[in-house]
Amino acid sequence: MAALVQSFTQRSSRLGSVLRNRSILCSSHPLERQGRNSARHIHARATEYLQNNDVDLTDSQRTVRDAISKICSQYTDEYWLKQEEIKKFPAEFHRTLAQDGWLGICMPQQYGGSELGIAEAAVMMQTISESGGGMTAASAVHMNIFGLEPVVKFGTDEQKKRWLEPLVAGKERACFGVTEPNTGLDTLKLQSQAKKNGDHEYILSGQKIWISTAQNAQKILILVRTTPLDQVQKPSQGLSLFYTDINPSVVEITEIPKMGRAAVDTNTLFFDDWRVPASDMVGKENEGFKMIMHGMNAERILIGAEALGLGYAALRKAAIYAGERIVFGRAIGKNQAIQHPLADSWMKLEAARLMLYHAARMYDQGYAAGEYANAAKYLAAEAAFESCERAVMTHGGMGYAKEYHVERYLREVFIPRIAPVSREMICNYIGERVLGLPRSY
Ligand SMILES: Cc1cc2nc3c(=O)[nH]c(=O)nc-3n(C[C@H](O)[C@H](O)[C@H](O)COP(=O)(O)OP(=O)(O)OC[C@H]3O[C@@H](n4cnc5c(N)ncnc54)[C@H](O)[C@@H]3O)c2cc1C
């Protein structure tokens, strides 16, 4: 930690002065520090725009929250509504975060990043979503924040320089290609193949589905089979990972019309005879699944944080509306049937938040098992869904009107419930790994 802090404070920070407080991470527990030991102040109400005095944030998390809030305040509710209407990728939002160095929050400093932890990246993603940008804003940068972790961990120095620097600088965007139409969550059975052609290239063929941002990305991190399933000892063997240019002449990309997040595309990909340089393979041949697994807990934590943000955004809108809307001569928020579900949602979001940041802290300390990351993603997505639904109902008819934004949140909040892993598969994981119950599938 000391080396990290020292190098952090020495770096020529493209995040400006924003993150220099990282060194404070070494100070005492936040709750013991002056001014933090009091109860939640009245100005910390959930109706505040991105209130920033959760007593349990570290100083570096608080600094991230402050800085990201400022950036996001330039991107109003109307901006996100408009992007949704015109189905346009929020390129300027992506650019702003890149310019200020935020896309490299978890990346090595050597390649332009800041080397902060998942605990800080989770604050960043929660704040982006909570600002009202929701899953649209989060998904516009999500892949770039931690998606290339397999490259960071297993790539060569040459690859890292070639790939991480343009990603951090916002010059290139990446998408992630794992899911396939015929196999779904049964990832190990995926059917896309790469066949070696001489020493210098592989030929890829197959299909992928639900690949977000493929229309706007230049690169893809793609998992394909290099050794047929019937020739490996375990199904997790024989898969390989490539990070390569999306070649539009051989990769057919078709957008999937979908329920929400219209500004950020999601697509099917068909490819045949796609020649990919062998130098674009990440790590060793046939070990791709192990590498993908490496970043999965972190991804669940980040998606959970994005869900939380949406839940708080919805709750804020609902609480403000409930305080202002007068029916039968009084604010609707005076009715316990309106007030109590919102109070209940705040408690559930906070409980999920505690689990999520606990998981993030453990991840940053090197804990590799997945129960907390999975549970946190599950709880955050469910709490956020309930909060969004209640926000719509609190608004009555206006909850159904686009100009009040909560219907957009409700449509978007399904995403973290489904992806990157479903509720059911998380329950399978907990049942099997934590409770020791027999595998059910
Ligand atoms: C908006 C959006 C963006 C996405 N972006 C990406 C992306 O960028 N890259 C990418 O690779 N993928 C992406 N995905 C795909 C996503 O990760 C998958 O949709 C998700 O993993 C579920 O897989 P599936 O849709 O094939 O569901 P299926 O595998 O078909 O499962 C369908 C349902 O059956 C349940 N089920 C299946 N097996 C079991 C079992 N054994 N026990 C209990 N229940 C079971 C599942 O939980 C689910 O509810 C995205 C999806 C969405 C909706």
Secondary-structure map with pairings?
Layout: H1 2-10, H2 59-72, H3 77-86, H4 91-99, H5 118-146, H6 149-154, H7 157-168, E1 174-177, E2 193-197, E3 201-212, E4 219-225, E5 239-245, E6 251-255, E7 266-277, E8 281-282, H8 288-324, E9 326-327, E10 330-331, H9 336-364, H10 371-394, H11 406-412, H12 414-418, H13 423-434
Parallel strand pairs: 1-4
Antiparallel strand pairs: 2-3, 3-7, 4-5, 5-8, 6-7, 9-10
The chain binds flavin-adenine dinucleotide.
How would you describe this structure to a colleague?
This protein is an alpha+beta fold and 441 residues long. It has three domains: 167 residues, Butyryl-Coa Dehydrogenase, subunit A, domain 1 (Orthogonal Bundle), CATH 1.10.540; 116 residues, Butyryl-CoA Dehydrogenase, subunit A, domain 2, CATH 2.40.110; 139 residues, Butyryl-CoA Dehydrogenase, subunit A, domain 3 (Up-down Bundle). The chain is 46% helix and 13% strand. It has 13 helices and ten strands. The strands form three sheets. The protein has a four-stranded mixed β-sheet. A four-stranded antiparallel β-sheet has the order 2-3-7-6, with no helix packed on it. A hairpin with a 3-residue loop joins strand 2 and strand 3. It is globular and about 80 Å long. The site of flavin-adenine dinucleotide has 21 residues, from strand 1, strand 3, helix 12 and helix 13. InterPro entries: Acyl-CoA_Oxase/DH_mid-dom, Acyl-CoA_Oxase/DH_mid-dom_sf, AcylCo_DH-like_C, AcylCo_DH/oxidase_C, AcylCoA_DH/ox_N, AcylCoA_DH/ox_N_sf, AcylCoA_DH/oxidase_NM_dom_sf. One of its GO terms (molecular function) is acyl-CoA dehydrogenase activity. Belongs to the acyl-CoA dehydrogenase family.
